[in-house]
Amino acid sequence: DSGVTQTPKHLITATGQRVTLRCSPRSGDLSVYWYQQSLDQGLQFLIQYYNGEERAKGNILERFSAQQFPDLHSELNLSSLELGDSALYFCASSKSTTPVAELFFGEGSRLTVL
Amino acid sequence: AQSVTQLGSHVSVSEGALVLLRCNYSSSVPPYLFWYVQYPNQGLQLLLKYTSAATLVKGINGFEAEFKKSETSFHLTKPSAHMSDAAEYFCAVTDSGYSTLTFGKGTMLLVSP
Questions:
Q1: pLDDT at A82 over 90
Q2: Which of B52, B50, B25 lies closest to B36, judged by CA?
Q3: Nearest neighbour of B32 by CB, restricted to A100, A105, A107
Q4: Which of A36, A47, A69, A93 is the most exposed, having the fewest neighbouring CB atoms within 10 Å of its CB?
């Protein structure tokens, strides 16, 4: 158990819909990272927050947004969903501002868009 | 931009055999390099990381990796495979500002009895 909690574990929705994925980092970790894992693209970095502020941005679509709240949990919002958004979405946390420190990954939220 | 290439999407070995998973990177500055492992239905966990302190890095579960700058490689090895090593292994490299981590596509290790 990494200590990172992600909900929901599985989510099935339709194209055009909006979903929210939630992540609770390990106790004491200030950084939260979001990654998308798909068969064709592999593991893609989406975005990082550190203590409530956006720290780094990767290949995140404009239809996607994220935030980190004062209690340090984070949410990833995916809107106008397309079939290609079906993937496993991972959250990871660390104490550091950079990924040089070990990242602790949750078990992921599997999104299926029909 | 930094990138990682993992040779072989699948590697099969027999229990007790040498494990060799290949990773080559491209980076404009000396990178930090990592190997993460993903067991079925779990998130990734860190096996080991290279931070320029030593070229041979030892990790958990008997794995080690050697940084070879001349070959831009960071291959992962284990002398003797165990059934419990069956998992997907990801090599990763930091960008020049050490602000993001780019993962390779992963190599699935299959271990047969």
A1: yes
A2: B50
A3: A100
A4: A69
